[in-house]
Each structure stands twice: as structure tokens, then as C-alpha cells.
Amino acid sequence: MTTQIKKSPEELRSYRWLGKNDLRSFGHRSRLRQFGYDRADWVGKPVIGIINTWSEINACHGHLRDRAEDVKRGVYQAGGLPIELPAMSLAEPFVKPSTMLYRNFLAMECEELLRSHPIDGAVLMGGCDKATPGLIMGAISMGIPAIYVPAGPMLRGNWRGHTLGSGSDAWKYWDEKRADRIGNEEWNEIEGGISRSFGTCMVMGTAATMMAITEALGLTLPGASSIPAVDANHPRMCAAAGRRIVDMVWEDQTPDKILTPAAFDNAIRVHMALGGSTNAIIHVIAMARRVGVPLDMGRFDAISRQVPVIANITPSGKYLMEDFFYAGGLRALMSEMRDMLDLSCVTANGRSVGDNIAGVKVYLPDVIHSLKEPLYPEGATAVLTGNLAPRGCVMKPAAADKRLLQHRGKALAFENYDAMAAAVDRDDLDVTPDHVLVLKNGGPKGGPGMPEWGQLPIPKKLLKAGVRDMLRISDARMSGTSYGACILHVAPESFVGGPLALVQSGDEIEVDVAARRIHLHVGDDELARRRAAWKQPASRYPRGYGAMYSQHIGQADEGCDFDFLQGQAAIAEPEIH
Ligand code: FES
Asked: Rounded to two decimals, what is the model's pTM?
């Protein structure tokens, strides 16, 4: 495809730093020469910032240090100058109390790294859960051409001939261990077999969901999100992204030209067909609002009712991301559901969605089902409302025991995570399989950072009796690798006085997923009495980033963005003097 040049070299951002004949530009150029570069490396060439979230504690991004070199190879091939800029690496397993506390931190860092340096276009490298939305939110707000390079999933796990899925099988076998069905030796072997290579979780968790959504939005090269991290296709994709971003700069293909309302609808439809993570709702709303697309949870529910789940991937199905790649990957899934997509949407490679999926086929029909024979007739996510969640809450019906999709039971309420953790393994806990477990203070302000506490553990005495699912309600999130009848993201959250704060053990709670309803059977007078007696818990942060976070974070239904990062108001380019 021929590049549609819309910029002259003098119009590049980097020209302001490097192109002038003044003392400042002399200083900038002399500092580039310190690296061994010469004028031939930058004159008339776009400078490409590679925002790399590699770190030595993030195995999901463990290969990105090398892959940045492949991106650079592509940038050089296309006539650009690559400059790698490291950014915060949000390693889901290690960052406490929750990576969600730092998603907006990464978004700010990405935006300001790009703004403050002589960068004309950006390659964003990440994949572990919050890295994807954080980088993209920042790039949207910066507004220069950007392409996403997804880290890709790790290989399948393996233990004694059994395939293991990240997270999902950890929860499963942990419950078996708690129920004394496996011992320490087996548990230790599972620990050594579940994560076999660099790359993200290889189930349809938040990472795989967000990488796929990013591709469906049009921000990656076609097919990029499904490539396993260690497959040789991955470095080739990285180099191709490096080549493409140089053309994107000349074409001035900024994120707002890709991220239209139709592109977001495409992405939500793909999310539903994948049986994707509930976390995606928060991130997609945040990304859409950054670009000025007015998205809310109602749109997810409406699309969910139209789109069946066709990806047979854990935790909603049985295969893993490596199988999904062999089945044809995201392009094959999008091809299967092409009649539901807006094929005219433009993507990062300059072509339309329709062009990108033309002629693509599904190779393994049990991994990617047809629309005629879906895994589940409705999509991945249900949004419920009612007096317990006036601004909504979400659930993943496909990953829940069907008997719990319409249920009325007594609440067993915990004021916080520690209270729940101290009680849940007690043999004398007064709980039955019909109880509704309720966790408070796990929301954006209450967690703080909305930790993934929403898959509350089944009480040990019920586990031993063979119970594997119960209705659970919280204002927290749930790992995308989790499963079960977990109602999440209750808004407004309990920490700010949402109705969840008023639930007491013994109250009756009714959930009807088909009717999208959640109801606390307590009279208005009694709720008013409880509200008058309610006191907000103390904040954990007297100072620092946490204090700023608590002051500015939005609720789950708003995408949990900071109030001061939202909007599209233009920020002037930095003065250079
Ligand atoms: Fe990084 Fe799951 S821990 S993607």
C-alpha cells in the first residue's frame, strides 16, 4: 500500500528539538551523538518512541526487552529513528495492593513520556492486564500516531499429562488442596508446570481479552494479539509494527481516527464472542471516554444480548490461547462473526477491518465455534441493576453454575477482605450453599484500587461437602481467569456509602440474571435507619500517590479514570528553550 504522506519533515514534532539552527537544538543533537548517532540517523526521519513495559519481575513481559530490538529493526527499515523509553511494568502477580491502583499512573506516564520527548509516533509494548489500557489511555490523550504491540500469551501449562490454564487451574487445584484431595507434592509440581514460558496468562483472562479488544479496535496489526509470546511470528510482528508506525507518522494516523464509536462497538462484540473478562468493561469505558466516545455499561449489556460466545477458551470454555492461535486466532473469530461487525472501520495498518479478515478461515471449529452452533447463545457479560447496585454491577453468566442465575438467599456479609479471610475456613461458620456471600470495601476507593477479591473463596466446610459455586457479591473486581457466580463492580461502592455498605448478614438478596435484576429485600425505612448509622471507613493513605488516587478516582461504571485525566482538551506542546 502506498503511504499517503500528509506531513513534511519540518512538520514533525521532533523537528522542534532537532531541526532548528539554534543553541537548544545544538544541545539536543550533540546528546544524540553521544549514543554514536549521526545526522543521517535523524535528518528528515520520524522519531519513534518505544514505550516498553519490560521488567525483571514481569514474566508476562519478559521477552519484551528483546522484542524492542525487533521493533527497532522495523523502524530503521522504514526510515525512522527508534528511541526506547522504559515505563512502569505492571506485573499482575507481584504489584500490591492491586495493579488497578496504578493503571492510571501508567496512563499518565505514557502520555507524559511522549509529550515531553521529541517523539513523532509511538509503539506501545505491553500485555499484562492493566498495561494495555494504561498505555492506550495515555497514547489516546497524547494524540500522536500509536500502534500497540501485544506481548502475546505464554505456552499451555502442563502437569502429569494434564493441560493447565493460568489462574483458572490454580484456583481449581487450590480448592482441591483445601478439600484435601491433592497434597503438597502434587501442588509443588503444578507450581512448576503452570507457567512454562514468557508471555501473558494463556486463558481468556483480562490480558488476552484486552489484547484482543485492542486488535478489534484497530490499534494493532491484524492477527497480532493471538500470537504466542515465544512463537517466531512474534518478533516478525514486532518488526512489522516498527515499519508500520513510521508510515503512520507520515500519514498522521492518530488514535482518534481509528477509535470511532463503530470501532468500540466492534470491540465490545468481539469481547462478548470471546467470553472475555469482566475487567474489560472498566477499561473499555475508560479508553472510550478518553477519546470522546460516550460509552456506558448499558451498551455492553445490549450487545451481550445480541452476540453469542463462540470462543471455546477457558474459563468459559476448555481450550487455551495457544489453541486459539492454531485455530486461526482473532482474525478467524472476527471473520466468523463478520456480519455483526462494521467492516469499514479503519485500522492501524491503514486498511479496513473487512480487508484485514478477507478470506480468513477457522481451522479448528471446536476452538472457534460458528455463530450457528455457539458455546453459549448470549454474550459474556450481564449488567444487573437494582436497589443494591443503582449504577450497575456485572456478572459473567457463562462461567457460573446455572442454578445460581436465578437465586434468592440469605446474605453472609463481611465488612472487608480480612474479616472474610479470617472466617471462611472456620468449621463453625454458619453458611449453606444457598447463602449469598457479600464482601464490602473492595471498590475503587475502598480496596483501594479495586483488587481482584470478587471471586470470594467457597467456605472450606462447603468445599469439603463438594460445593464448587455460590452466589458472591462485591464492589471488587475478579481476575479474568476466575469463574463462578460472582457479581462484581457494584456501583456506587460501599466505601462511599453505596447500598452494599448497608447489607447485614441474614438479609435476603435476590438475583435474576435473565431479568438483569439484583434486589436487597430490606424495607426503605430500615435502609434509611442503617444509612443514618453508617460511617465511612478511614482512608489508608494520609499522603502520596494513594492519597491523590483516592481523591480523584471515579467509580467502576465510569471506567475508574482520574477526573483530571478525562476529556479531550488540547494541551499545548512543550516550550523548547
Ligand atoms: Fe500477567 Fe496474567 S499475570 S497476564
From this structure: 0.95
